[in-house]
Design a protein that fits this description.
The structure is a homodimer. By secondary structure, chain A is an alpha/beta fold. Chain A is built from 16 helices and 17 strands. Chain A has a six-stranded mixed sheet, sandwiched between helices.
Chain lengths: ~400, ~400
């Protein structure tokens, strides 16, 4: 079963937008054993789109298109596909209801342009878009399928996972690929590669290991080809986890702040935060989890020294003597927010995120993290890099993982 | 002058790596007036690569290839191009010296595999790689150019900017493309399309308008073909801005929190935040800007009601009577943090981010935002959607834009 991905939009060809859709789609297709032969990006030009589509249909069985389904004039994918398949547009009731539903949630009436979104090719199977007004569509012709989806990433993702892939898997025979992903925090890929070199060397041909690093996180994906490899994939996964267990927080799609939240709920504990260099990002990660109000009380963003002193009770003399980025200050920040909120645990951060502000004694990327609980306090300094955004992300994830490990000691 | 970008590598087709190279390259080409007609990604397969190349050479004058130039067996780009152009590999002295130089910096001798990197096609112009052992190459045949570069982003970038583009610009006459991008907040693309329908209809053939929406933001890009269109692009841009001026916060690559920060610096004003439903995300956006400590003092993440009362002085009776998501409470939050920090302005948010917690009176997506200053307070309710992540983002951006507009009134 061969597939191709066709992305449509001038913005991709002038480099205004980085195409993250096609790699995500390729990943999802790969997970279910559909091989992507080619990815191609073209502009909003009907003849170019038709030419690309003709060529791809000669090579593959399944063409996935994204982009160009919006309501504005520059979006021509729907009309071009309708012409290509010698079809015509008719009103699609499900799409019309959806447009009305979406506008109802914002208390407005759809206008004529919005209603146009409900016109769909008569021969196509239509996918109603849960998250927007642009429906997707599938033309199923001569044993080949052409699916068109919106280019907005979250709309496309929901449509692919919930509607397109289930349909495609029914339609095409698939081979089994067993995946197991280990999720780790605070560990680099070269360090892991050294630690598990012997395990990696012993992997059979039909089991592959991929390193998937992102800022502050590392995922390790084992892929076994053929259903019979399941037990072996599990065994290798266990071997790897054993070597790096202090850093492993989950498997598959686990997210650190979710895993931490579940632990807090299980133990009936609450937390609060006092953030300087992370500037609210820890609070944001915690509250990005639905239901986080069960354990997260809130806290203080103590960006200025005055707020550290006044809101968190940091000692002014200590602040002057040791500086804001110090063990003394970060511990007092944690104790202060613990007292203010009455939470069971508190996390505090203070560091030099950059790009400037470093010194020989306190270099750029130095971050102090404190963890306070009713039974005591712990703090540690970390040396991250020279990029502001990444320093903030790494500090926040490191802090969350410190608390996760603390909770596991109970 | 038409160009195409061909990326080579299996890792791109299984979605393991997001291809950031091709959008960056497209951007650079576009800046110098070279139009990218197509981007295509294929696997490490000689016949597929040759087929793609033949096809592209029928369409465009300039093909830029990245990837597949490494020393390991899976890298076949160099040998495939050599075959395609009926050439042979010969030792290239400059490349050999470069391989030796690079190994000298790490105190090692190159082995036989590394030395192979110095073999280059005899007919090609060779680009010695300043940052790695894989040289780039250019075949110049029948008035068309095919350039192959390494896939490692920083190696490719240096080679393209310092060696490939200067050569290409000498070789091809270029057309000018004038871009102007308008950045707006709190406005949907269909709404804008209606508002500016007459302007859009009046655009000449050589000026295009694209709508680039993202969560809470909308960018509008005007592209004029030919240097003579500059004045007209500016005129159309002014006409559009006039229609939606309340929402426009900048141009080009402007970022809302940067624009706001610049205004605060200019006016010598400071701000603080009191966040409930946005959970620290406003603080995060503000502190993502280097130098934000000049105007952002910090604030309170008041996720629980207890923190609202104890840290921000929200009246307990009002909280019970009106609920946390109310005009009364959000205004008291803003006043509380203003008092706590002594800032000139304060932003407060309280809402139902979802996915649950809505009611008929207070539906999912309802967010109250308050803006307090020394001269008074203002608050407004917004109705966003049903997605937690997007509600948080939209609420935060809306709050920042409210403050920006307030500052402009001065």
């Amino acid at each position: 079963m061969k597939a191709a991905i066709l992305t449509i939009g001038d913005e991709l060809l002038i480099g205004q937008v980085v195409d993250t859709n096609s790699s995500w789609m390729a990943q999802q297709l790969n997970l279910v054993g559909i091989k992507v032969e080619e990815k191609i990006g073209v502009g909003d030009d009907a003849s170019v789109i038709k030419e690309a589509l003709s060529r791809l249909l000669n090579k593959v069985d399944f063409v996935l298109i994204t982009g160009g389904l919006g309501p504005t004039k520059d979006d021509i994918t729907k009309s071009t596909l309708t012409e290509f398949f010698q079809d015509k547009l008719v009103l699609h009731e499900g799409s019309l209801e959806n447009v009305k539903r979406i506008f109802a949630t914002i208390g407005r009436e759809p206008n004529a342009v919005n209603i146009q979104q409900a016109m769909q090719p008569s021969k196509a199977l239509v996918f109603v878009n849960q998250n927007g007004t642009a429906s997707g569509m599938c033309f199923d012709v001569d044993g080949k399928m052409v699916v068109s989806m919106p280019g907005v990433p979250f709309e496309m993702k929901a449509m692919l996972l919930n509607q397109v892939l289930p349909m495609a898997l029914k339609r095409f025979r698939k081979i089994d690929i067993i995946h197991k992903t280990i999720c780790a925090q605070g560990i680099g890929e070269t360090y892991v590669a050294e630690k598990i070199a012997d395990i990696e060397a012993s992997l059979p041909d039909y089991i592959k290991l991929a390193y998937l690093p992102s800022v502050g996180l590392l995922r390790l994906r084992l892929s076994g080809y053929g259903a019979a490899s399941r037990q072996e994939v599990d065994d290798y996964s266990n071997q790897i986890v054993e070597r790096i267990s202090a850093h492993v927080f989950g498997f598959g799609d686990d997210i650190l702040q979710d895993v931490l939240g579940q632990l807090l709920i299980q133990q009936g504990k609450s937390i609060s935060t006092a953030e300087s260099c992370t500037g609210g990002y820890i609070g944001h990660l915690l509250t990005s989890v639905p239901g986080s109000s069960q354990y997260y009380l809130g806290g203080t963003i103590a960006y200025s020294n005055e707020v550290k002193v006044k809101q968190l009770g940091v000692n002014k003399q200590d602040l002057e003597k040791f500086g804001a980025v110090s063990k003394e200050v970060v511990e007092q920040m944690a104790i202060g927010v613990l007292k203010n909120t009455g939470s069971d645990y508190a996390i505090a951060t203070s560091g030099i995120a950059g790009p400037t502000g470093g010194s020989v004694e306190k270099p750029l990327g130095l971050v102090w993290i404190a963890l306070a609980g009713k039974s005591g306090i712990f703090s540690k300094d970390f040396k991250f890099g020279d990029n502001r955004e990444r320093n903030i992300q790494r500090a926040a994830l490191t802090a969350l993982n410190l608390l996760r490990k603390e909770l596991l000691k109970k």
